[in-house]
């Protein structure tokens, strides 16, 4: 799959923060939060890393993990005090050190989505969980991109819109197992809340009959890689009993012939 050339996140950051603070962005974010609030309480551990496009949004408030922190590429006003300044594709974290990684639209707006996902899998400990929130190309939102002029396209249409099947392939290659995928938000992408209210019934109908075609997909995966245990020879080594071996008769005959 060839991705379109993505602008650096430094150039998109301001527009993304403004979009998530407007009416449509808040509405979508509220739905994402509702789904995450159902999934996060069942995930345990010590460290949770949220890697997203807005460092002022804390999506892990319902998590049972003791230490949650946000990763962002630059210092911003309103950031959580325990935030980490780093690039999504180059995390300054040790291998197998994080229990839960939450990718909030970070794959949608990355120059190399696969590298961001690979870094998330690298820092995730065996048995840890990965949550991916991304736009769904098989949705009203994904289809609406086809007739929107690029010059007038809103910031969310600049996302990669990676398909669920492609992401699952990547997850399997990184030795992760998909546990659950939830698709939600079935309202059209009109900026006006008054217009969206006219389609209010679509939300209930979509959840019941079109559960795979919501504007967003939230994938829950687990890292099923066994940890390595050091083997100590002095504890596991076995002593072999040496048995006397009879000398072959032919060897004695050869000596006599000499």
Summed up, what is this model?
By secondary structure, this protein is an alpha/beta fold. It has helices spanning 9-21, 23-39, 113-123, 140-144, 164-173, 193-197, 201-209, 233-236, 249-257; strands at 47-52, 67-72, 84-85, 98-104, 124-135, 176-184, 216-223.
Could you characterize what this model shows?
This protein is of the alpha/beta class and 258 residues long. The chain has a single domain, classed as Vaccinia Virus protein VP39 (Rossmann fold, 3-Layer(aba) Sandwich), CATH 3.40.50.150. The protein contains 9 helices and 7 strands, in the order H-H-E-E-E-E-H-E-H-H-E-H-H-E-H-H. The protein has helices at 9-21, 23-39, 113-123, 140-144, 164-173, 193-197, 201-209, 233-236, 249-257, and strands at residues 47-52, 67-72, 84-85, 98-104, 124-135, 176-184, 216-223. The protein has a 7-stranded mixed beta sheet, with helices on both faces. Helix 3 links the parallel strand 4 (98-104) and strand 5 (124-135). The model is unreliable at 227-246 and 254-258 (pLDDT under 50).
Q: Can you list the strand order of the major beta sheet?
A: 3-2-1-4-5-7-6
Radius of gyration: 27 Å
Q: What percent of residues adopt helix (DSSP H or I)?
A: 25-40%
**Domains counted in the coordinates: how many?**
1
Which labels suit this protein?
258 residues, alpha/beta, Rossmann fold, seven-stranded mixed beta sheet, globular, disordered C terminus
